């Protein structure tokens, strides 16, 4: 199975490497070709342009956002270079809007579109332990399952319609953001009453809230440790906005998402946009006069 | 150490029983004396009136709410019956307002007031595995630590001021409510996109959200299983309101708490007040036209 | 008709004066008696204690808040001094809770309780042009209508239950607060786009929003002129909280009220509590990075 | 001055007619040409295609939304048909995004772009009494002022950047939506307390809230008279969303806009999308159990 991989950022690079190590023949493309060097050294074929992936049976993209994905895959001709019957797997977090556009474009070309965004950061990607959230034609999902088995510890299937996977990914990121906001608000509440936020968070995560997400974000908030950014606050706003769009499509009011949007905007206005998104907790602290 | 225990509801009864089994001499009082019978059969002394606890060294109350606590302990004379130097431990979830009032009343009588609300429901109380959130004079906390060791698996200390423990308890309940609301909103979002909420929740709780609280409430919401009520929705509104009051005292805006309040009120207006508070998820479902 | 007037603050003083000028025999009481001097010079009888109003047929109070009203009228014995058949008119903005308590206390004594909060500030009170929002027994309202005719330009009747008038007053103050918040948000929006808020507000108030309330608050916000305080921001928070309580009694979610509460708290945390409540607009400006 | 007018809907038709009556030479285009007949009968020249406006010195469009404006003016070649130096006036309510795109497209062609959305409905347009909110190059605004003088009672100038006019228009529509929501919430509050909303609204609009907007929307809400739709609820959601986008561009949190968005979505989910946008008040009524 000849695979092409477009987008060799911090996530894409280790993912492509894992496929290479698993023995797949890989063609790679990245906007700045330097990122491809280690892969090329290990046997990957370098594409100069997106359209050079012609001949690939399976194409995976892990590109930064909607606009870049659209540009690389459609405008720069990556999809047009493929033969009918190929599978295109988009593993980035994108909007439902883009998902529809890409699926429809693929459909006209006889290409099978699979949405497969992932849960897990760089180290998880490197270990091949991602959780892969998929939606698309069941036959095609079976066909590329070996690829997913290399990249992730588990593949989840949410339906035949690619939007279903992007919706689930956006819902999961929304859930993460609600954790940050709720810890931020309660940390401000207890701090205002003279209690160390870390004592409160330690108690929570030792009892009912013993999930990694509370431990990680709780720890960062208690220590106000917002650099380096695991996930930038500006990206948090983007994902909440995409979740709101997915919700609006089906008439789902999401008041927590609305609070998140306003608070992310507040954080960016105060200059925190490049911090880790857990710095959303600064908003509660500032508004309470605690900073 | 002679202990008095007032309030033998679903939580108070097993707690008092554990103290009895641990060998303490216990006087018990309950509004309807029938609840005291099993304890009396096992050796507890029955008080006809709250003031009959006179002579106790340590008094524990686990009464339903602010008004009843005030009535039993002050109006009906329980505290007046105690000798200076006694310790009064209030283990119920009450407002900071009441905490201040009780602490001040005790202080005038030379009684030591300890706030010690708990995390854990009936089965946890029965197993002596509560998490006990305390605040009060350190010396007095050390004095009653053996009592806490019988009732709970762990005692947490949040400061010398009793309000600090009630604030922490209210913050913890706020956190629980945010879990319910966020799961409710995202369950509506995915359901509106044709995805089974249980598949979504199963994925979440198998990955980043592997805490008991997400498993329990997520499961209830996925199955719309809101009876029997582990914790009634009307009590959820009450606790969010108390958290808001604690926040307002120190000028802490809590926009998630505000959303929770409005949604709890909505739920009660639709007749869901006696369901488990995870039925808050019905609000998102109804507002999205999914019910 | 012998009238007693308790509470001679900035509103009470001109109101009592108008009654005196209209020829009524007036007994007056105020916490600090100095405020009574001008009235006494004009013929009012000074009461040393609230209970000295004994013998009055109609009692009016215009006291600062719930606690003081309760203290003066009940604890200090003003109501107890009255004969059955007297009318007690509470013209201050108080909670529905206090309204119920006072009405019930009066009812036991055979006193007729009328809630009659007012719209209008000091100058309006002085001119006898208040709008008086009443609820109570229709017969008694007719009986005291001549008094209202002196104090106000118009008397509005909202029902037989005194809570209905306090609810209307709280709803009106909520409406005023929404005007301030909406002007504050849109002023921040246009300012962030390089438009002078005063140009925007001038356009609005010259067209669809040609009401006094938009002109007054819009002007203050455009000029950031928040002193002297016509109505203190801390009182704005209090009234929004009372509106929320009135709403919660009948299961009415009010998400705009929730936003107002959080933003008033934010304003107070930043030190703006003593400014005019239109300084709520500072919250939008600060959160947008415009201050 | 040869003028072209594209978009002869309920607003465009009377506006074009006024220009004709004022003696201008007008070319008109509409998707369905039938709407142009009365104008052609009165002397307007009918364009078969948007590009047939070639030769016009001033072009006005009043098209339904962003997508149609983009399609007619760019894709179908209206702008390409113009000579450098022409002025294009967009009088519809569109997004800042589209405003930027159109302005940049015009700039490349040497066409002067003016944003000039209006306040006022059909009858106001027919009477030539619109309020016209403009932004663009001051020289060009002076050049077309005679045109605005025909269409409106007053022209407001908000800056040189066309986005400034679209931002002001979106801010004004946001303000209108806040009026509807605040009346809706307080109407629910008073109704739940047994007070007729119409009595409450009558009092408000006779006193502090004596603006047309409160009278109109207040009356509709009091009588639950939501058809015929003066402005459809779905369009209300669209405009709030555009206001949120304009706010996000400059980092302005707008929590009232967030509440509006969620409530408009709720209304649409319950089937009220085609009612007048004042039917937003149904959301408060339903959530309070009053419907």
TrEMBL record, chains A, B, C, D:
Residues forming the 3-hydroxyisobutyrate dehydrogenase-like NAD-binding domain are 165-283
EC number(s) recorded for this UniProt protein? 1.-.-.-, 1.1.1.44, 1.1.1.60
Q: Does the keyword section mention Flavoprotein? A: no
Q: Which GO terms describe its molecular function?
A: 2-hydroxy-3-oxopropionate reductase activity; NAD binding; NADP binding; phosphogluconate dehydrogenase (decarboxylating) activity
| Oxidoreductase as UniProt keyword | yes
List, in alphabetical order, the GO biological process terms annotated in this UniProt record.
Answer: organic acid catabolic process
Keywords noted in UniProt: NAD, Oxidoreductase
Q: Name one Pfam family in it.
A: NAD_binding_2
- Give start and end of each 6-phosphogluconate dehydrogenase NADP-binding domain: 2-157
Q: Which residues form the active site?
A: 169
Highest taxon listed in the record's lineage: Bacteria
EC class of the enzyme, as a word: oxidoreductase
Q: Which Gene3D superfamilies does the entry mention? A: N-(1-d-carboxylethyl)-l-norvaline Dehydrogenase, domain 2 (1.10.1040.10), NAD(P)-binding Rossmann-like Domain (3.40.50.720)
Q: Which SUPFAM superfamilies match?
A: 6-phosphogluconate dehydrogenase C-terminal domain-like, NAD(P)-binding Rossmann-fold domains
Stored PANTHER family: CYTOKINE-LIKE NUCLEAR FACTOR N-PAC, OXIDOREDUCTASE GLYR1-RELATED
Q: What is this protein's name? A: 2-hydroxy-3-oxopropionate reductase
């Amino acid at each position: 199975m000849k695979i092409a991989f477009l987008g060799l950022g911090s996530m894409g690079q280790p993912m492509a490497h894992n496929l290479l190590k698993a023995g797949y023949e890989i063609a790679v493309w990245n906007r700045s070709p330097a990122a491809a060097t280690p892969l090329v050294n290990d046997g990957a074929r370098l594409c100069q342009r997106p359209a050079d992936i012609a001949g690939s049976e399976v194409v995976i993209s892990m590109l930064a956002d909607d606009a870049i994905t659209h540009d690389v895959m459609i405008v720069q001709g990556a999809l047009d270079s493929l033969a009918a019957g190929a599978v295109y797997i988009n593993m980035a977090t994108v909007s439902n809007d883009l998902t529809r556009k890409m699926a429809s474009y693929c459909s006209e070309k006889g290409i099978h579109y699979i949405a497969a965004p992932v849960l897990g950061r760089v180290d998880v990607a490197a270990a091949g332990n991602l959780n892969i959230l998929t939606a698309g034609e069941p036959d095609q999902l079976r066909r590329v399952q070996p690829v997913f088995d290399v990249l992730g510890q588990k593949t989840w299937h949410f339906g035949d319609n690619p939007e279903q996977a992007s919706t689930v990914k956006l819902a999961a990121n929304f859930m993460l953001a609600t954790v940050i906001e709720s810890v931020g608000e309660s940390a401000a509440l207890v701090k205002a009453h003279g209690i160390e936020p870390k004592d409160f968070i330690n108690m929570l995560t030792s009892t009912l809230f013993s999930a990694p997400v509370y431990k990680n974000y709780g720890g960062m908030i208690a220590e106000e440790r917002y650099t380096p950014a695991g996930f930038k606050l500006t990206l948090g706003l983007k994902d909440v906005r995409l979740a709101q769009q997915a919700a609006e499509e089906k008439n789902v009011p999401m008041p927590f998402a609305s609070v998140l949007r306003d608070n992310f905007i507040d954080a960016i206005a105060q200059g925190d946009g490049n911090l880790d998104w857990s710095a959303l907790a600064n908003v509660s602290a500032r508004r309470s006069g605690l900073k």
